[in-house]
Amino acid sequence: MSVALESSAALREHAGPAWDALLTHEFPVRLAAATLPEESFRFYVAQNLLYLPEYARVIAFAAARSADGAGLGEHTESLVNIVSTEIPQNRRLLEAISAIAPEPTPGEDVKAPATVAYTSWLLSIAATGSTLDIAAAILPCAWSYGDIAEGLVRDAADHPVYTEWLGFFASADYRAVVDRQRAAFDAELAEQDDAGRARLADIFLMGCRLEKSFWGQGLAMQHWDDVAG
Amino acid sequence: MSVALESSAALREHAGPAWDALLTHEFPVRLAAATLPEESFRFYVAQNLLYLPEYARVIAFAAARSADGAGLGEHTESLVNIVSTEIPQNRRLLEAISAIAPEPTPGEDVKAPATVAYTSWLLSIAATGSTLDIAAAILPCAWSYGDIAEGLVRDAADHPVYTEWLGFFASADYRAVVDRQRAAFDAELAEQDDAGRARLADIFLMGCRLEKSFWGQGLAMQHWDDVAG
Amino acid sequence: MSVALESSAALREHAGPAWDALLTHEFPVRLAAATLPEESFRFYVAQNLLYLPEYARVIAFAAARSADGAGLGEHTESLVNIVSTEIPQNRRLLEAISAIAPEPTPGEDVKAPATVAYTSWLLSIAATGSTLDIAAAILPCAWSYGDIAEGLVRDAADHPVYTEWLGFFASADYRAVVDRQRAAFDAELAEQDDAGRARLADIFLMGCRLEKSFWGQGLAMQHWDDVAG
Amino acid sequence: MSVALESSAALREHAGPAWDALLTHEFPVRLAAATLPEESFRFYVAQNLLYLPEYARVIAFAAARSADGAGLGEHTESLVNIVSTEIPQNRRLLEAISAIAPEPTPGEDVKAPATVAYTSWLLSIAATGSTLDIAAAILPCAWSYGDIAEGLVRDAADHPVYTEWLGFFASADYRAVVDRQRAAFDAELAEQDDAGRARLADIFLMGCRLEKSFWGQGLAMQHWDDVAG
Fold it and tell me: What ipTM does the predicted assembly reach?
């Protein structure tokens, strides 16, 4: 393969079908069509609430290992955002969807397989990699959510919960957050040699795969065999 | 549940069906019957060779964070054993099975889903937990291999590769290794309070689940959708 | 020695002369008397500005390795406080003292010996220890500042910079912060066995020693031989 | 300064007086002259035995975070060497010197100030830096010992313990170890950009300073004020 891997756009191209599978995944497509079972969305949000504290830990590792005061400040800001904004937002989202789908899925409040795989992988990068490795690992999630929502929001059907969710990730504000994240990543990527870029491209690709698993897990409400009973 | 969780035996009981599923898994059962497709075994060993270096890293973290000279010495010994004995052994095993199943499965030499999940989870424990957490995480693998092999070796059919594999894990030497590992773990477990034991039991249970996924991945030669093509 | 080590008060008693040396150290005593050379205070604050980002990294490690959401939230709050309040406060303090002592000491803006030792030791605890180890390591600093200031504030001489500094650490607000920190630590200490308490007492003692070195370094404006020139 | 920092030789030149101070330090000079007090050497060796396990932990972190199988293998080999060869060697050395200087210095078996600073600093690099950062941090110790011994061995006076010590570090075998370590480091250094090299040069410089402190501590048998009594 001869993609030069010099930018996040090149990493996305390198990820190829693993990225494309996110944009056309049945979970968000049915969410936009308002035909996604509320039970699935509830399971997804419940698992997201188990994902986010681990994600916060990954950012805390990045803060701990940041090279300078600027990096320390940015990662601290991101960490606060997850703890003080994203987690409470997702708690409210769980309440909203639970009003429609009041029956809990068994084990929704313990990490299901794709949640374990995804959060563990992020933490393993945080434990063994550099802060740039961490940036490559978390980029697919943030970025794909924006692209997915933008692609679906125009023709979306109304839904008492899904509409707001879709609107958030399709907003100009969210786009600006992703753009800043990509620009910061691209600047550091440009300073890497070929081997470094290839490793970051592999990390990005793995992030795409694990994103897809997480959507699929939500749709099917998958759990460990000994939990699902 | 009212298991007291005071020993590795109690943790195994707590793990219940997740442990039992290992003893009766189709992969080792068919391996003993010499009806396991050699392609599956080859895929399993190839993935094991991607698992072992990460496992070694986990032990290196345990060495780095060991509380005293005794712990440092034991983890160093374990680390050398993985790097100098287990990995070369598995390389020879891959050669042996490749002589029978010469066709590589696409992507056998990059981490497949269960390999990513299992190794990442071990590393995430190493990154965020204590050395006792690490001990709980690695125990299901070592221990279940011995129990599986002991349960199957007596009635096993002959096979040019499988027989030796089964014999190794059913040996008195291997049993002694596991017994020492359990005794060391039990001694530390006894000093934990209830909350600590419950956490260790959860770690042990998760190790059992990920072991099962690894067997299943080998049997079905599962890979990422974008690799399996 | 037969101190039971069941509380932070017992740890302080265990630290004995290493703790007492902080309360009577020439640096804060002369600061309160307004006879501390401004050059020394400037050097101390400049080194404190090199200390604080490393301290923030230690708290970020604690956040990353916190056992639950409560711990994650508390450490995140502490981290933000350091980055958004303490560091800017110390920058203003450096400006204020620099107006009086305008001549920089050579190398004041690179870590001097006691700064390297203290920050490295905190990070080494963060890298190899538990979150409770971290709590024991950072307690002497926070606590002794309050006790030092309370002991000196009543009879302190007026000074354009020192008075406010002393007032801050002698305030009821600061006392409340320390009391909360001690209460949280004491609750966890109570759950440890004797070996655990002894280790935490040793960590606390080392924190006292390194605090003393940091005061001494400020007073003498000590630097590496190859920097001091 | 305009040193290009492209090799370990350039880093040594960058370290300047901090490196030179090692070659002419009173401790090894008097050791070679056989006029070093045996009490000082005993204290130095006793502290070295507290240094080495932490050094081993640093190498274990490097193994845990090594990028590939080759790095994992090399760091594992180094780790075994420390645990199985260097530590026992130093135990024998302590026995030999204790036969001549039978009186223990108070606190010789707990980490003294320079031991805490040096080992903590190494661990802080291991916790927050890359494996190349670790390589830069440990290089001054290994390398300077060889250069010191080579410079002093020819005119050294006979001594029942010092002579063998000097001979070991002045040997061709030891030189070969250092040469391999430098060659591996130089190869990786060459791939760094200017900012990376400058950071590595700063790490190397700090290693030299801490080496010097460790020699000085041995000579003066320095301890914490509350230990030295």
Answer: 0.96
